[in-house]
Amino acid sequence: MRIIVNGEPRELPDGASVAQAVAAVTAAASGVAAALNDEVVRRSAWEATTLREADRLEVLTAVQGG
Amino acid sequence: MTETTDDTAADALVIAGEEIGSRLIMGTGGAPSMQVLREALTASGTALTTVAMRRVDPSARGSVLDVLTGCGIRVLPNTAGCFTAGEAVLTAKMAREALGTNWVKLEVIADERTLLPDPIELVEAAEQLVDDGFVVLPYTNDDPVLAHRLEQLGCAAVMPLGSPIGSGLGIRNPHNIELIVERAGVPVILDAGLGTASDAALAMELGCDAVLLATAVTRAQSPARMAAAMRHAVEAGRLARLAGRIPKRRYAQASSPFEGLASS
User: Fold this and answer.
1) From edge to edge, which strands make up the β-sheet containing B103-106?
2) PANTHER family given for it (chain A) (predicted)?
């Protein structure tokens, strides 16, 4: 299954969760948020939320700015 | 009650019912290293500091969040880089989830050349975020009408620019800032464009409740030294505002008596 994580296509096993996709791009245990197709997925729901082909996932964290 | 001199504890900045320990709000953008940033933040005495939200970078070294946590500074996420209300609202929601705060510095810009706020998108985003329970601190144009509209729709402060972000041009329209201050029922935070300490002092003398700055410190030749200068400038400007300046006069007014002069 191919999904788009932070703008880059990525192969994940069918039925992969948001938690698995996030873990593929960061090891950070906190300070990270995920949005699936422009909707925030609460961290408590990452494990239970499964991805589908062509889903778009954004994974953000705080950086220097402002 | 005795007149206070420099009792800043009795003159705290309060936003949305919460006391903020300094009237100098810092940004973290532009610092050449985390070490320089840490030294500058410490020298500034700030208690509230902005960060931006971006895609995670697996190669990033050090986290700005670790610096803020280490300094005991409260984090204020911004929506920098957003051009539409939709982008800004999603970014604010992600910041709330990532950082555990419902405070947001709302920034919706019109173009990359000026980085000026897009007032239409800004109002739209502010309405949505206020309705969603955010404490919204909007970065706005130095437009008294727009600032008032933002306050009316429930923003917890208004943050007019002095001049474009990072320009160091100072406060280009002090009269508008005074008009915003006169009418505001929420804190007015001068945000963007300050270049040096006198700009920060002027903002406070005009009646602003706080200033927010980053570039003037982080890109100064000695960021920590400039941060200390800004801290003193904000305190000096605030005291001068509270003290009440003398009216400007057209001609001199002698400060020494004319009586009792020696005659020759």
Assistant:
1) B103-106, B135-140, B159-160
2) SULFUR CARRIER PROTEIN THIS (PTHR34472:SF1)
Residue B133, both tokens = 């329970």
Distance from CA of A56 to the nearest CA of B (A): 13
Question: 3-state DSSP helix/strand/coil percent for chain A, to nearest 5?
Answer: 15, 40, 40
**Domain range for residue A52?**
2-61
DSSP H or E stretch at residue B67: helix B64-71
Phi, psi of B122 (to 5 degrees): -60, -50
Residue corresponding to tokens 């600032």: B147
Q: How many domains does chain A have?
A: 1
Q: Which residues of B touch A6 (CB under 8 A)?
A: 55-56
- The pLDDT tens digits for B192-206 are 999 999 999 999 999
A62/B contact by beta carbon, under 8 A: yes
> Closest-CA residue in chain B for A27?
B58
Find, in chain A, the residue whose alpha carbon is nearest to that of B55. Answer: A60
pLDDT digits (tens, 9 = 90+) for A17-57: 999 999 999 888 789 999 999 999 999 999 999 999 999 99
* Angle, helix B119-131 to helix B144-152, in steps of 10 degrees: 20
- Judge whether B52 and B33 are in contact, CB under 8 Å: no
Domains and CATH numbers, chain B: 20-55+63-243 (3.20.20.70)
The reply to whether B248 belongs to the active site is: no
